Amino acid sequence: MTQTIRKAVFPAAGMGTRFLPATKATPKEMLPLVDKPLIQYGVEEAVAAGCTEIIIVTGRGKGTMEDHFDRAPELEASLEKRGKTALLEIAQSVSKLAKITYVRQPEALGLGHAVLMAKELVGDEPFCVLLPDDIVDATVPCMKQMVEAFNRTGSSILGSEVVEGEAISQYGCLDCAPVEGDERLLKVRDMVEKPKASEAPSQNAIIGRYILTPRIFSLLEQLTPGAGGELQLTDGIKALLQYESVYGFTYEGKRHDAGDKLGFLKATVEFALKRDDLGPKFREWLKSFPL
Ligand code: G1P
């Protein structure tokens, strides 16, 4: 019997330099995809996967994230007074999503270091990590698919997809083999963070979705700087391979890199087109747009 996954960690202390100037004073996690901040998509995905405790690793200047998931008494009172019940429901539902706790990462030392900040709050149980930049559009939420894979294996699970050509150098890369009888699982032999494309062991990239066993924390504590001089989560998981099996998981769905300007624009268009309230009019307008 595997342990239940209850907790999800969101590293959200990064400076968002890929999105300047918007992210100079606004956390990149708060940029809205249509009308919802990026991080809310991730939190909703974690909740849909069964998580009840959300741990957000923040840094300086990220206070609006905490306000977003908190109650907003003045706003709620005003909406109630004016009989705006639908909007009131939207405002209140955000603060009811889950129990959310915050921990600060004092210095941006890398993703491995960010996850380590959650050690005490996670404790001795398997947990999810979601990178808020990666938005996964899927019929069954990506993390829910991964929790099901964890329940089958009892092992750490890394969300994975095949990327084309040189793009692999921007990701953690898996040296892996298919698992017989489970078309979505990949047995991980080794892994490397941001390899040169010519040296990549495969085109199987890690995406920003992980389920990790708690042994990872002692390994993250021993990390030394890796790719880009940062303490890399990939290196910590590579160390985990000495003790435990780790699987890649080819999720069903479509990922958007919303931390990148072009990726964000594409995601905005796709999400807007899918909306019942905005989609039809937006589609009409797009058709008439002189390209
Ligand atoms: C991080 C991880 C990398 C992973 C990627 C997924 O990189 O270090 O292994 O493939 O997220 O989005 P970053 O995008 O922060 O450079």
From TrEMBL:
Instruction: Give the molecular function GO annotations.
Output: UTP:glucose-1-phosphate uridylyltransferase activity
Q: Which UniProt keywords apply?
A: Nucleotidyltransferase, Transferase
Q: Which domain of life is it from?
A: Bacteria
Which reaction(s) does the protein catalyse, per the Swiss-Prot or TrEMBL entry? alpha-D-glucose 1-phosphate + UTP + H(+) = UDP-alpha-D-glucose + diphosphate
Q: What Pfam families does this protein map onto? A: NTP_transferase
Sorted alphabetically, the Gene Ontology BP terms of this entry are: UDP-alpha-D-glucose metabolic process
Specify the protein name. UTP--glucose-1-phosphate uridylyltransferase
Q: Which organism is it from?
A: Terriglobus roseus (strain DSM 18391 / NRRL B-41598 / KBS 63)
Lineage of the source organism? Answer: Bacteria, Pseudomonadati, Acidobacteriota, Terriglobia, Terriglobales
